[in-house]
Specification:
There is one protein chain. This protein is α/β, with parallel strands linked by helices. It is 25% helix and 25% strand. It is built from eleven helices and 16 strands. The chain has a nine-stranded mixed beta sheet with strand order 11-10-9-8-12-6-13-16-15. The protein has a five-stranded mixed beta sheet with strand order 2-1-3-4-5. Strands 7-14 form a two-stranded antiparallel ribbon. A hairpin with a 2-residue loop joins strand 15 and strand 16. Helix 3 runs parallel beside helix 4. The longest helix is centred in the middle third of the chain and has 12 residues. The radius of gyration is 23 Å and the shape is elongated.
Length: 346
Amino acid sequence: MQRAIQLARNAIGKTAPNPAVGAVIVHENKIIGEGFHKKAGEPHAEPNAVNRVANKNLLKNATLYVTLEPCNHRGKTPACTDLILKHHIPTVVVGMEDPHSRVAGKGIARLREAGVEVITGVLEDACKKLNPVFLTNHLKYRPYITLKWAQSQDGFIDKQRSPGSDQKAQKISGKNTALFTHKMRAHHDSIMVGTRTALLDNPGLSADLWDGNRPLRVTLDRSLTLPGTLKIFNLPGSCLVFTECDAAPADRVEFIKIPFDQNMFKRIMHELFKRGITSIFVEGGTKLLQSLIDINLWDEAVVYTGKIRLQAGVEAPRLKAALHENKMLDGDLIQRYIHPENCLIR
């Protein structure tokens, strides 16, 4: 199972909306086949592992280890339970049950009904850690929400600036940290900024420095005051704008009318989830980030602390959560926090 987990890690961030899954086939204490799910729409981990077995006759006396319950329905690919039964694999060891409503124990039940020995819960917590996005989608019915900001040594994310001024954003973190940001963006389906950040910084919100997704750009524009010349409206890809006003779709831009009330962010996440958005990377500013923190609507937070001190400016968000990870990157401190309710996910 440890090897299956290792294989699954190769696909993290590349399989949405599907989970990352690894599989290993063992015969007489020797691995004879292994594989992982590489991309949505392509073969699952189990057929990839079976296809690597040179002598298929060995499968009748083999054990399949898989990080996630085999599916029992046909989607873009055949059901993995059919494959297991076709090759008469007698024992299947499962890391965790699949929370997807179309699976949810049905794969395990079908295998057992057919006489297959199924062992469950092996390295279950480690298997859950592979797929926090997938688990959040199917247990909470919303995208996985990652918050991110960079702050100075004394807790500011920027100097004070006004719309229309020529002042540029204060550079806080280094080039390699920027590359790390693009990596995280590429592992999310969407990127969100608030109205003020869109106006002051005119960000492109691209992930061009890393191979992966071209995330959907998301912003708020309550009264439709953002100029149409901004990069988020004109760069390749799509943009989604949440507003209180009626607005016709424009090239690359869709407007969604919602009330800007206490339930606004829950509505936003619901609308994104309906559109198949599995994860969102929220980059600011402070008002947007703090709003999500205050209503407890987040899953992970990544905070960069640079080398500089600003003395004054825009205060960084305030987050009270246990530190999950701490590392240095070219002098920048990168701290990662996981929401307490996700302790079994990561």
